[in-house]
Records
---
Amino acid sequence: MRNCGHIDPENIKDYITRDGYQALGTVVTELKPIEVIEIIEQSGLRGRGGAGFPTGLKWKFTHQAAGKEKYVVANADEGEPGTSKDRLIMEGDPHSLLEAMAIAGYAIGANTGYIYIRGEYQLAIKRLKIAIAQAKEMGLLGENLFDSGFNFEIKIREGAGAYVCGEETALLKSIEGERGEPQVKPPYPTNEGLWGQPTLINNVETLANIAVIIREGAEWFNEIGTEGCPGTKVFTLSGDVENEGIIELPMGTPLRRIIEGFGGGMVDDKEFKVAQSGGSSGGCMPKELLDTPMDYDSLAEIGMTLGSGALLVMDETHCIVDIAKCLMQFFKHESCGKCVPCREGNKRLYNRLDKISKGEGELEDLERLRDLADTMSKTALCGLGQMAPTSIYTTLKYFKDEYLTHIEDNNCTTGSCRGLVDLEVQDKRGGKDYGNNN
Amino acid sequence: MEIIIDGQKCEAEAGQTVLEAAQQIGIKIPTLCYLKEVNEIGACRICIVEIEGKGYQTACTFPVSEGLRIKTTSPEIRRLRKLNLELILANHPQDCLKCERSTNCELQSLSKELGVEKVRFAQDSGGYKLDQSTPSIVRDYNKCIKCRRCVSVCEKVQGVKALYPNQRSFKAIISPGYKQELKDVSCVLCGQCIHACPVAAIKEKDDTERVWQVLNDENKHVVLQIAPAVRVALGEEFELPPGTPITEKIVTACRRLGFDKIFDTVFSADLTIVEEGHELLARLKNDGPLPLFTSCSPGWIKYIEHFHSDLLDHLSSCKSPQQMFGALAKSYYAETEGIEPENIVVVSIMPCTAKKFEATREEMEVNGNRDIDIVLTTRELARMLRVCGVDLMKLPAGEFDAPLGITTGAGDIFGITGGVMEAALRTVYEEVTENELEKLEFNQVRGFEGVREASIDLAGQEVNVAIINGLGNVDEVLTAIKEGEKEYHFVEVMSCPGGCIGGGGQPIPTTEEIIVQRGKGLYDIDQAKEIRKSHENPIIKEIYKDYLGEIGGQKAHNLLHTTYQERDQY
Amino acid sequence: MEATIEEITKALDSERTPLISVLHAVQAELGYLSTEGLKIVAKKLDIPLSKVYGVATFYTLLDTEEKGENVIRLCESAPCHIKGATNILTELQDKLDIDVGETTDDNKFSLEMTSCLGICAVAPAIMINGTVYGNLTSKKLDSILDRY
């Protein structure tokens, strides 16, 4: 994000003034593809889309895979709620993405790149189109780049409203004009991706790191962040903090520092209750985890995720059951409907939470929630279904008492669960509605 | 390569899945959405196994690799499978007692296999309206478990692509399109999706009640025709091994149901050969249009009308044996017996769902009388027999009635892919060469490959023939014909894999192995017949002499030939 | 309609597997994806109709039902939820006198829910057609709706 706000994103010259396209020039004229991959490997860069897979390794697999054509795909389907880092990069520094894609294309042996971008991101789409046109005009995209004989073109494909298309196999299906449904792996996209050809899929933020790594070197990158997770991470901070917004920080910055330092603390000095890290599919971190370093490994250790870098901070006025229900509402809507645990599971999780929020919960509901959440995370076909119940796990672990209050005392202390507020009235009418339970 | 499954070392081949490797050593991993080589999408998650270092994976999709260590059963695996099955069950009506697939339902068996004792989720059945828009097939969205086997069969096996997942998430349904019913789309009604369906979400339209009604009506003279493929399959509904021919028992059983006459579609198959053979020879003589396509498979007729209407003039104008039978029953038979055609009800027992549609085609009537009144599938006949407590195996043998029940072996093999071709060749060969065939079996046209071709020497003229087994193979052949790569004179097309013996109205299950057995049954019947050439059928000779006049003549045309129409592809 | 769709498919001719791009363009041109329109798309691209429907009904930005002149999409994701999106929903329902998925009698507004719009810093947010509005309050909502 080094250029965001410092350059005019609709003017390629601004980007070039700040060393833009220098890395691409170096790569295609001075380095062999495998040397480029080695630099990325040495940098230790890991995928910023959520899974944290080593980027260099992914490039290497695609480089090694046999295919008559290969593709680079930028995953710009930033659908994770509470995340807007990729949008900011594309709106503020579109050329950093284009340059990286061309470098990746050179490294793996692809001449075509696709940017798969959410249909909702109209401004980003507009700026990317301008950027591509300008780069082409200046010979920085197209044929024979830097007289190296290397050709690379970039096309934009707009998504049409499906969160699941952030999953790489679903994304490829969508480019192929299909329903965006995830496919079983193997085969992996690195071997059989777009139209059956080897395909490298990287997140926008991951790609935005490429040019600077090439320019400054792997060692420079290594010095930022933690040992296992070098580099920076872009966080999208939202919720009940004074300063919401997007910040790029070294990997491993503790949660407390992000909230108190950059977030300016809680609004109205209310008590911190919980932060959800990684978007809707992320875990809910209670007060006692405020000092956790925010990087892939540290979070994985405690069953949390860094995910997309979304950080939703909530104060004491919010109800855990209500939040979990809202999250399940989202997954219930966004599941692609192909595999059983995700299609049916999210609906059932939602129904059970709804039941609890209405004061109709029973103790065994908690067991059912846990059982189902566990089955989904172990057996769902793709990351969506596997990660959807993360909030259920983590809230049952850290906020069990709050669930119990809803069930045993029919009480929502925050007043968020409207069903519970209405409950007395319903009882007077002589019965509750059990029509749509668990 | 060597892999380890449940502690056992086992040899596996590259390209195999864990499921296949396990099957080899006697480990049966439960499956639901899996259909070998057709639907391998890992959607139901029932076949999950634990693979060391890779977590839980679906056995039906995961490829073996050297040293793979797999656990196919453990308390945890069983718990996970069971919970996913419960999720399916909670969305599936629990009305097994009233369901026609009860005791023949994969979901029910699986539930028993996995030991499901209760479903820990509230019952939630969709409230969808049934699709009863066609005369052939009923789709029950409420029972659909979204395994997508029908989608894959329709696309990959039949090449029709009438079904697809629509909407998404828990609202996802398998349908011909948003707010579309089967009648609105280019579904050919072959019914192969019924065989693919593990539950009762797709079934034939049940017409048994209509048959009970006419059987109970004293003013109606109810005649029955039974298609060849039925006699080698019906036994499966009564626990007999697949392919067991039980023709004589079926005749007795149907008599007990109260039909006035029991006739045989094999008779009109013979008639079809005589008419169609004549048509082929005429086209060979008059330059076309060639190739001539057979017209006895109604799914194929609907397919070409939707997808290749530019080739409609290549279709034989002959009605199918089912329709020829009806036309004669209400003309020749009615006249000779002195019964008003209006009082005759023709019922067919067919291995086919598309036959129900064929019978309703507007043009299928003579003098205002519908050729066929009611069509039942093999499965529906079994249902009627069960209701009446007919103990099939204890019945004495019966015989078809004359005249429309006198048949030759050539007509029997109509029920198997290549059979119409073979029957036609027996007749056409003798007609053209005026020599008697030494060997009646044309082995070149037998078999179960998707496309077979042969060249036959007819008195110096080389006749190129092709057999298309299953609609999924049609486009390849038609493209080759259109592009001039292939020059055929005569092409047999059967909609369903294996021909009518694999038809959409046949007993469930209908698998490749079962189809082979049924085919053997038909060849055995042909083999045992005294007369095995259609043109030697004595009744047919008589009918032409006394009633129809010339083969391919005016009267024959009025009664036995038909027309086709272009239908929308999209 | 046929001519419009033909023009669209021709313009996207160089694109490989262009179905979704075509559907986007057809919707932009014709307002929504009617049965008739989808049939023409299927024909022009030679894709089975069942699949064209399957794809059109998978994505929330593609409409197979006629919508009002302006489509209001309210973000239902967690960051907006905790900032009171539920109240905004109630307000919208009251003001427009319609439920989610419905269109006002004068055909002016349709109300839909959407997943995250990526502007969580100004939650709660709505998108009307292509324009995004954040930091919503009841009062602000009135003045926004007045613009349409």
---
Amino acid sequence: MEEIDAGEIVSEAIKSGFDEAVSTSYKTLSSYVKISNSKIDSIVEKERAGASIFLTSRKRVFFTHIQELNSKALEAALAKAKKAIRSIKPKSDYYGIAQGPFRYDRKAASYDKGMEGYGEKELMDIAYGSLGSLKGRDQLAGMLHANFTESNLATSGGVNEQMKSSLARLSLRLFRNGFSNQDFAASKYLSGIKPGELANSMLETSKLSEKTGRISNGAYDVIYTPSPAGSLLSNVNSMFCISSIETGSPFSGKLSKKVGSKDLTIYDSGNDSRAIGSSPYDEEGHPTETTPVIKSGIAKQYLHNHSTAVKYKTQSTGNAGLVEPDPDAMIVEHKNKAGSLHDLIEKVDKGILVTNTWYTRFSNYLSGDFSTVPRDTTIYIEKGEPRFIIKQGAIGSFVGIRISENMIRMLHALEAVADDSRQSTSWDSEGSYYITPSILVRDSAITTA
Amino acid sequence: MREREDLFSAAEYALGVAEHLSPEYAEAFIEDSYSNSYALEQGRLNGSSYVREKGIRIRIIRKKRLYTFSSNDLSEGAIKRLLSRPVDFNGVNTEMSKEGIAKGDFKCSERGSIDDLDMLRELLSMDKALSRQKHVKFRNIYGGAGRTINYFINSEGSHIRQEVPGTMVFASIIVGNGKETRQRMLNYGTVGGIKEFEKLGIAEQLPEEAKKSFNVIEKGVSLPKQELSGIREVIISPEICGIAAHESVGHPNEADRVFGREAAQAGTSYLTKNTLGMMVGSREVTLVDKPDIEGANGFMLYDEEGVKGKEKIIIKNGRQNELLVNREYAKVLGRKSNGSARSDSFSNEPIVRMSNTYLEPGRYSIDDLEAEVKNGVLMESFTEWNIDDTRSFSRYQANEAYIIKNGRVGKPVKNFILESKTLDFWKAVRMRTKDFRLYAGSCGKGEPMQGVNVTMGGPYALLNFGGE
């Protein structure tokens, strides 16, 4: 049966009586090479194809999906959607999709041409490279992930665009002398993944101190390296989406008010070509932008798609999400640059260096209260010097401390950054990518085991 | 019927190609699922969807290396293309335990077809019930119903078809009085039909939960730090018992954590192969994982390696007793699998997972437990929790908790946090009630992250951290 594209899907949907239609058809290959106990453990490879279809009829909105890109599957899906959409209520505050045509900045569509049709061998070379950086009795675990996607977006608002995208991500976790270090490399380009550099950076962290010690409950300055800094701060961009603002965000009603350090600016960027996931257009074909959500400490802009922008009499920020706006990559900038990570450490009289966090949980999303757990090597700093690796008990790579924070307090207390800004991610925030330096946050509450 | 035959033919074709590639071991798993879902925000229908997906997963062990391939294209061409990709690599030797051949066609009990459930109407009635509570400031409810059918065949002759209908509802509620807010998140899920779903009584429960949280705001007290640190006796509810059983006992007893396979993802364990059998709790603690509880969110009969899901006594009278294992780790341990291999979709590899995990109930009433407490707290529900990588140090922040003085339950307390080491927590268990309850949840693990349906629970339990 002949294959259909997103344009044909949209055209058929409109012909069959829907007011609007948006479809993204895609073909994707994903690979995961797992490393455990210092060996390549296994490989998982996934092929997916299909098309998402967004339909509206008299303000009723409905999503469906087909996986076989042919007219028979489309006909069945549209018939089912027609029946289903009759039984649901109109979304009274829905104001339609973005109307093109648009002009796009094509730089955001950059991708790794070499990854088109990549094979397992190229991935194995990086995995072996990771293992080659091991020394002595060190143990290594990790995951190399690669993805190549071809997609076609078409809308009844006059958009029909094709795009290719790529991503590569390596996470490594090194176990050495009873401690662990984990870090992440992420790039649009397979050549951007340099396992030796990642392993060396973790080894440098593990060399900051060889002593161990315990700390007490109390207030400490906290330095977060890029991965945990981004993992925590990327919550800010989600909280600036208008749907979060409507349903309870610490930034609700805070536009034009001071919400952080005067030196801090946080962007949401859909079109920064460095960022994984960058694209010239959002899910409804509106051009993506780089939007300051916080500028010089002031809450500046909520994130919108076309419909929510009309509702609030503002402009779309290119963040569709058709049901609701989604954040893109987060970029953190700060005027107070201390220099290197070591220079940042020198600014701390009593504090800790956190290299990875997980289990970040909000006890109250509206107030911004949360706690998070440092997962890997965490170093106690005193009078500007790393003193010892924190270990509150004898078990394995156990750290045994917890940070209790409030997001707005954290932004106010974010006093300085290092000059080590890079793209990162973490296991705890899979699918989110951010470009951020190491950050220094004053006076966070720490509890210990 | 024709479609069913087509799916099974695709599985047989894939197995044939895979066996040719790898005589050591091959399996094919086909999944066909659909769901209708709706999202309500502040009473407004924000989105609705119908998604059906079919796909195949093929696993082979070739030269002792494990490969997993998946595709939502079931054509012969796609299967051949996938199985042309593997390259040899130096790595972990993977072998499967010897298991019996499993055959059968299984369907869980479904009282009232799930296809006849009007989930949107149910969600709107939940929302209406919540909207009547004037102190509810924000309410989001998301829910869905659907059905999954899967076929599993392997090169050893196993051949299983399973059909699982189910529902899920998630509600996020923020209550407030203008000065203070509290957040409550609730998960519900069933495996089965309309009757199983109706038994949950969600529309009645949500306003009650909102009222209880608001009561903490209105009548609760914040205890001074010194007084909080003096509390040694805590009665934990089935909800707290469940999250603790899941996080600090279930997860660290997953064999792939103990043996390091998940070290860069979901983490490690306080257990090692040398400390299996250690005491982790008081003799009051017997903790199990039982997959075949009808209606429960973590229900399953056979796992995704064709092994019958067995009851695992993870801790028996305080002592670590049995790990959760799949066939790979059963082979490592020289035993049979206990049927713990699960995935969230045909698209991902099956890994070691929990099902329905709980602390066994005891013989007391809640009154008996309260009567034992001189200066303590009754902790009914939590807002936030987290735990470290080795599962040794956890925290549960109370949503609803009450002061107990000399056996009498008093005012709500606003700022109680139960933060302790895992072994201290389970060794503090002194008494358990007969009352027992399971709570639905979605458990995340692996990379890519896989969320699978589980339940967790237990009785009310009295914990005494004073060592008496």
